[in-house]
Write a structure and sequence with these properties.
By secondary structure, this protein is an alpha/beta fold. It has 13 helices and 12 strands.
């Protein structure tokens, strides 16, 4: 069904139909109402291609996730983030162009192609690095962008959820329970939130007069959590607690600890970050930090569309994270050692 059909049925010109359907002046209130009623009865829907040609916009925005596809399919955080984005885009008739990239270099190149091919009107930047090459690239290309969880002072409009209060409170609870040897399973090197979470973990331990335990870096997958277990736990005196930078890595670490003969939580306390729903169904249920990815995605989409409309935008802060204390965190045993592995 096209606007030609609507014009014929409503007995008006194509120009009048275009003005009415795009909410532009040029038709009377009565004619506009008649055209809209006819369009609704005929089942007319706007053509994205037609809107793009007439408005010099793609009516699409882009997001490149620097993640392996195997991580994305099991990561509820980004599913919720994308759901938040779509909840806003749908109301405005925009499409989301989603791509995956295995490396930071590949992700940067995909953003370049999006801009040069005029496939999108703007983009979201997630997993911000301390020195992120995408920022100057998009500035030079003139492609509007909104950064997600960037550092304050980022030249791009940013949407943030302060994840540090929840993590600080959680690590303080770990210490208050009597854990004095606390390790950290960090995210990918170079990312802003990896650096921030590492700094909070370390500062809480130092402030308590404790020496920070070992640090191992992962990639937010369950596999990297499982691989980290021998490196963190196989020594003669393993830590009594591990603070993980994501729930998926925490789940993998629990599995890896079990393979080493350690029981969670009696032998080892484990905490995560993100507050994914499945963490509450584990046994023991996962102590974590609750985030709001859906709200973050919706706020990012609102900000980007306002930017595309030419409005003045400012950074947006949503509510800070909060700890969720569950069964995977308990007081340590007075003396601990690694039990012998079954052969």
């Amino acid at each position: 069904m096209t606007i030609l059909d609507v014009a014929a049925e409503a007995q008006v010109s194509i120009a009048s139909v275009s003005a009415a359907l795009n909410d532009r002046p040029g038709v009377s209130t009565e004619t506009r109402a008649r055209i809209l009623a006819v369009a609704d009865r005929l089942g007319w829907v706007p053509s994205l291609r037609g809107r793009s040609l007439s408005g010099k916009r793609a009516y699409a925005v882009g997001l490149v996730l620097e993640r392996a596809t195997t991580v994305l399919e099991s990561d509820p955080f980004f599913a919720a983030f994308i759901a938040g984005v779509e909840s806003v885009l749908e109301r405005r008739g925009y499409a989301l162009v989603l791509q995956m990239a295995g490396t930071h270099k590949a992700a940067t190149e995909r953003y370049r192609r999006m801009a040069l091919d005029h496939r999108v009107d703007g983009v979201f930047l997630t997993d911000m690095a301390a020195t992120d090459p995408r920022v100057p690239l998009l500035r030079d290309l003139g492609l509007p962008a909104v950064a997600v969880n960037s550092d304050p002072g980022c030249e791009l409009p940013s949407v943030r959820q302060d994840h540090l209060p929840g993590l600080r409170s959680l690590v303080e609870q770990v210490v208050a329970l009597g854990h004095s040897d606390v390790a950290h399973l960090a995210g990918r090197r170079g990312l802003i939130h990896t650096r921030q979470r590492l700094a909070v973990w370390r500062s809480v331990l130092v402030d308590a007069g404790l020496r920070p335990g070992p640090v191992v870096y992962g990639d937010f997958s369950t596999e990297s959590g499982s691989r980290a277990a021998p490196r963190l736990l196989a020594g003669p005196t393993p830590p009594s607690a591990v603070v993980c930078a994501s729930d998926l890595m925490a789940v993998g670490l629990v599995s890896g600890a079990g393979a080493l003969g350690l029981d969670v939580p009696s032998d080892l306390s484990v905490t995560g970050f993100d507050g994914i729903e499945i963490g509450g169904f584990l046994r023991p249920s996962l102590t974590t930090v609750a985030t709001a990815p859906r709200r973050l995605g919706a706020a990012a989409a609102e900000t980007l569309l306002r930017l595309l409309d030419g409005d003045r935008v400012e950074d947006v802060e949503i509510e800070a994270t909060t700890p969720v204390l569950r069964g995977s965190l308990v007081a340590p045993r007075p003396t601990r050692s690694v039990p012998p592995r079954n052969v």
